[in-house]
Amino acid sequence: MSILFLGIDAGGTACRARLIDESGALFGEGAAGPASARLGVEAVFDAMMSAAREAWRAAELGPFAFGRVRAAAGIAGFRREGVAEDFALRPHPFESLTLTDDGTIACLGAHGGADGGVVIAGTGSIAYALRGGETLRFGGYGFPASDEGSGARLGLSAMEAAFQALDGRLQPTPLTEALLDRFGARAPAMTLWCDGATPTDYAALAPLVTLHAERGDKVAQLLMESAGDALAALAATLEAAGCPRIALIGGLSTAIQPYLPQALARRLAEPMGDALDGALALAGLPLAGASA
Known about the structure:
Oligomer: single chain
Number of helices: 12
Order of helices and strands: EEEHEHEHEEEHHHHHHEHHH
Helix content: 40-55%
């Protein structure tokens, strides 16, 4: 039986998997829920295996035979102290499994294995680069103190605006009214939600901000401009460190483009592939230079 390659992108909002054969033909893709390392080893492995099984079913390969699969995964938060050691102790069903952080697979995919950097704007944010065998990393230390310009921080800022509108400290806009409607314009309900909200929960509010920004909502546009400035600062840090090529990627990347400084937007490189391409390369599949 031929060897299969499985790439996994275990992120804060979702876990994605892509199954490829030795020829590079796409066999199947799958997805599962959040898989950040902060959730714990078992939760991440559960999400990874759910996504892998979904990809296998999509490929219509019959009974699971993960023993013929060479896998690699990039996990959000993998560089936190003790995380790699914890994951190394966890058994897995694959022929091989290489684990790293999400920044590494993003860089590998975006630049076809060549040197370059990425600013990832998703649930969290980080500036990450591979340069001459050296790894560069700026930001990405976790919500709420870091991850500036991210979906989670955008959602948090939106909730702050909603509280201010509720108090009369901020002129209501369609964005703040939409948020207040979710909670019946009741501060106790909003506070209770915030008490238990995760970065993923806050990031789920980001599409509401981007939608109202597109419609001309002044508060939403200010929040998007602030996020754009934060991501531009991360990109500038990579440039100052000598990174030769920078791409903006992640779930927020398209929506944030109009709010980036124009000079930076012109310098950004188009990604050659995605994080799953990078994970597949780490698993042993030669990079094709573009996403499958």
